[in-house]
């Protein structure tokens, strides 16, 4: 491709701007009319990509090459998304099935489709313990190290200038509390394999942003702390790293963490971009919609969160289809999660279809809990009823043995038992349907927290 190898961080909103300019020019004497007609879309897009672009972000999806002949799939892809990640086609087993023989056909089809439709590409993934071809699984030591360097060089050079960001290394840290590296054949080549991978990728494609990507790093925990320490060390020593990807595969066992935004922010504060790279949230209806909206709001609140990618288009396209974790149903219809995502991108509150304001006056409250052994964080969302609020109080009964450690955005009446959480000065006044959140950390277990909300 003819692009010079410059970093591809032109704002995604350039596309929107260009379209606007063309319409205004082409309409000639109707310029005034066109301006009025277009004004609403400048503040509220009607597709995920357009709305994200208005917030300076991209909105992407994983794409499978074998679905590019499915008209429904392609229709949604090219209407809604402006970033594409090949779901499997750039992995080591796909691109180098036997040593030094490279096959780019399927990945090329995805890149060509993206380019034809004005979408950018996230490359995924250059070095990973999983989806290695058999010949790599059988290598070790210096032979494996050289094979890795050769692989990264060849693949990243081949796509030089066409990739917005590469997941250079994927999933290199261990789950659980060890805070260490995952054991793998790559790790056994020496602890420096990750920085060697990043330096190799930079040399091969100096224009691509280079990311470290992982799962179970979405909140602050031993694993994300270990990644954080590595990124901070890389920045201190000048190892080239530009971004950290948070896969964000969520379900009931692994919910959106209460400190998701704070965790994104602490990485951003190290001087890297952060990206949500493989978002899917199992569930349905309002609960799923609310979780998607939370993820979007977290990204929008972190200025270095440059975009969100969902891991597939329709539920039936998902690698975990039974959890119906995506934004479109199997027939390609928009789900409540889609509407909540779009509304969150447009800066609105959660749409009325997913959390109707309580009828009449009053307010309602909903609690999300993130628990660990011996403690929990609860996030409480207050929604004003049709009359709005001048102030509110949420009653919650903590189970025996549970006691507050810390509360934010509300004032508790006591440390345990039946607690009334009153608004603080800046969040008491809500217009009809408006929401606000407060939270607290407590010792003990959460049990089932059933909130009641009273408005004044
Ligand atoms: C998954 C794909 O979606 C599946 O089609 C494939 O069978 C296995 O890999 N983390 C990653 C992704 O980084 O590459 C994985 O994708 C999902 C988990």
From TrEMBL:
Residues 356-456 form the CBM2 domain. Its EC number is 3.2.1.8. Keywords: Carbohydrate metabolism, Glycosidase, Hydrolase, Polysaccharide degradation, Signal, Xylan degradation. It catalyses: Endohydrolysis of (1->4)-beta-D-xylosidic linkages in xylans. The keyword Hydrolase applies. GO terms for biological process: xylan catabolic process. It is an enzyme of class 3 (hydrolase). It holds the Pfam family CBM_2. Residues 42-344 form the GH10 domain. It comes from the Bacteria. The active site is at residue 278. GO terms for molecular function: endo-1,4-beta-xylanase activity; polysaccharide binding. PANTHER family: BETA-XYLANASE, GLYCOSYL HYDROLASE. Belongs to the glycosyl hydrolase 10 (cellulase F) family. This is Beta-xylanase. It comes from Micromonospora costi.
